[in-house]
Design brief:
Pfam families: AzlC. 79% of the residues lie in helices and 0% in strands. It contains 15 helices and no strands. The protein has helices at residues 2-32, 34-44, 49-59, 62-73, 78-89, 91-103, 110-113, 119-126, 131-158, 160-163, 166-169, 174-183, 190-206, 214-219, 222-239.
Amino acid sequence: MADRTALTETETGGKADRAVVRDALGVGVAVGLSGFAFGVTSAGSGLTLMQTCALSLLVFTGASQFALVGALAAGGGPFTAAAGAFFLGVRNAFYGLRLSQLLALPRAVRPFAAQWVIDETAAVALAQPTRRAARLGFVVTGLSLYVLWNLTTLLGALGAGAIGDTGAWGLDAAGPAVFLALLAPMLKTGTERAVAGLAVLLGLGLLPVLPAGVPVLMAALAAPVVLWADGRRKGRGIEG
């Protein structure tokens, strides 16, 4: 009886692991294709093949990379472009704080894992019910996305002239679309949905008036604002 129970638990665990790997690979492949768009955009902004590939290998934060080359393509100076990319990448530090507690990786592994702390790996890891599943999702998403993103960056930079307008392919929208698809099921309460909605309004509303990357940071103010308003509402309910 005990052997049968152990076998059932093993089979259940195996199915759960396969589901996590399947979802993580789906995210890695879908978002990794956006590397084509980055390679083309970077080459079009005047960066060399080596510079373009170095950005993907060493920086590996898609939105920040697009912000950098987009600012350069628009005629911005290198320091201004780098500042915008830096501000946009700051959000990964907040992901890291949460993931460090969830994953609890060995100290020697953390510097290498930090390279993969991005929107997609955070979303996949945080969506898992157990630490084991979170670790598996983080590693599979990070590895598949890192490899594919760098490969497609190289191909996009090499074939920039032949690919043409990346907007016509829609590759630049793949990353945000997948991230939103992962985030939506996690918004289960009214407070969480209110935070997400206000964050969207702040980010889009401030986009035309603030430098690249800053609207994303300002959108983080949605959480304390909604929590404060919710606390006041509940306080009035108790008093009434």
